[in-house]
What we know:
Layout: H1 3-16, H2 22-44, H3 54-77, H4 79-82, H5 88-96, H6 99-108, H7 118-122, H8 140-150, H9 152-177, H10 192-199, H11 212-252, E1 260-263, H12 275-282, E2 284-291, E3 294-296, E4 309-314, H13 315-320
Antiparallel strand pairs: 1-4, 2-3, 2-4
Amino acid sequence: MTKSTGRKRLFEIVEIGNLSDSVSRGFDYLIVVAIILNIIAMFMETFENLQKYNTLLTVVEVVTVAIFIVEYILRIYTSDYLYPGLSRGKAALKFIFSFEGIIELLTIIPAFFLSGFAVFRMLRVVRILRLFRVNAYMDSFSVIASVIVEKKNQILSSVFIVIVLMLASSLCMYSVEHEAQPEYFKNAFSGIWWSMSTLLTIGYGDISPVTTLGRAMAIVISFLGVGAVAIPTGIISAGFVEQYTQAQVSTSMIDDIHLHTLQVGLDSRWIGMSAAQLLEMNQAVLVVAKRGDITIVPNENYRVELGDELVVYHTDRLIVE
């Protein structure tokens, strides 16, 4: 096995998570167990009656962090397969400064210093998202992420509407409740907590209007809150429908005479590439991919894996025809 082949094999084990590769799957499960144990140990350290187990908890944290460090180094070492269009140095830098790379680094740092910064340690909870790598990229979580990215403008607009309603509600309640409850409504911003819990239909009950006008306004604000919450819910629901409709349409296109079905083998240079990289480097437009029983509509998270069945067409043929 050459050095290049060995690095490629490491990439397949560490990054791809092939369902048919027992070693790769075993590594994924090892990372999952390490994440869960690390989070459990981190939470158990906060219990005073478990102080006698501090040594054991420390050992668990040291071992799991060591696994995280090894994984982080291996991902940097094989990053040029993740970004095949870049040199090894540039690929390593791109991974280090990527969102996932930064999160992984920040979860390791507290083991050496900044241990008092609980926020960095809590970032390890974010690593639980790696659980989704045990499944294919186009699992339920990936669909959710795709919908949020595609509908981000509409979602941000609806969030802006909610914020405006919160500010308006806080100002209104201050104007009618300030004299009756000066301890709760000291200024126009004091009612933000009440307006948030009311508009988002939570209703903690720790602050409530006592005046007749205040209660009448609270009824109106509550109705507005139901509508405000329904807007992003409807946007996301519509996004799910579009995603699955697109998947069905793409699957039905497989029989089109212009499309070609390719099986990704062990020596394929396409392994690890995204749909955008396939188009840029091979002039191959990836329409849909099949991974076992899963049909994948490629998005920015998708990477070609060993065993994938790709349905592609070449742009030069489209130009000719």
